[in-house]
Amino acid sequence: MDSLHAPWRIEYILAPKPGLPESLFTSIAQSNDDEANYVLVRERTCFALLNTFPYTGGHLMVVPYKQTPDLDSLTDDEMTDLLKLTRRCQHALSIVMKPDGYNIGMNLGKVAGAGIVDYLHIHIVPRWSGDTNFMPILAGTRMLSEALSALYDKLMEAQARIEAQSPRNT
């Protein structure tokens, strides 16, 4: 089994976090500046955005509007919406980035690796054969193949095509 190693993220995990009056995701959910926050899609109960501290290029997150640390507080409709948007984002990533596979999941609780402990979110991490290399380990440098803003534009186009092709009731 291959492991996904992202040792550069420890700097983010251990760094002091700015004191926000609300959660980062709450702030983004309430913002009108989707482009600045890399929000790709807003649905009725959840939204999707690019991770600004990605494990690999194309790392997305799907977030419910309702702030909750775990699945227990979500309604069945909210759970369904989360998974449907996760599927839609995976589809867009497949169109734009053509990965060999994905890691899709949640880190619930600090000991499980959650960077934002009080706000459940689903990670969608595209993976390619041989996508880890020596740069983050030896040189302390991440190699992302594309700027977030350029990837954001491509994924927005893909999301629009997906939306145009899908009936709303599926």
Describe the 3D structure.
- With 170 residues, this protein is α+β, with helices and mostly antiparallel strands.
- Helices cover 36% and strands 15% of the residues.
- The chain has six helices and five strands.
- Strands 1-2-3-5-4 form a five-stranded antiparallel β-sheet.
- A hairpin with a 3-residue loop joins strand 1 and strand 2.
- Helix 4 crosses helix 6.
- The radius of gyration is 16 Å and the shape is globular.
- About 6% of the residues have low confidence.
Which labels suit this protein?
15% strand; alpha+beta; five-stranded antiparallel β-sheet; 36% helix
List the helices and strands and how they pair.
Elements: H1 9-14, H2 24-30, H3 34-37, E1 39-42, E2 46-50, E3 60-64, H4 76-97, E4 101-105, E5 122-127, H5 135-139, H6 148-165
Antiparallel strand pairs: 1-2, 2-3, 3-5, 4-5
Helix pairs in contact: 4-6
Structural class: alpha+beta
Count all strands and give the number: 5
Spatial separation of the terminal alpha carbons: 35 Å
- What is the helix fraction of residues, given as a range? 25-40%
Overall shape: it is globular
Task: State the assembly state of the protein chains.
Answer: single chain
How many helical stretches?
6
- Range of strand content: 5-15%
- Strand neighbour order, sheet with most strands: 1-2-3-5-4
Average predicted confidence as pLDDT: 83
User: Can you write the helix and strand succession as a string?
Assistant: HHHEEEHEEHH
Radius of gyration: 16 Å
Which consecutive residue ranges, at least 5 long each, have pLDDT under 50?
133-143
> What kind of sheet is the major sheet?
5 strands, antiparallel
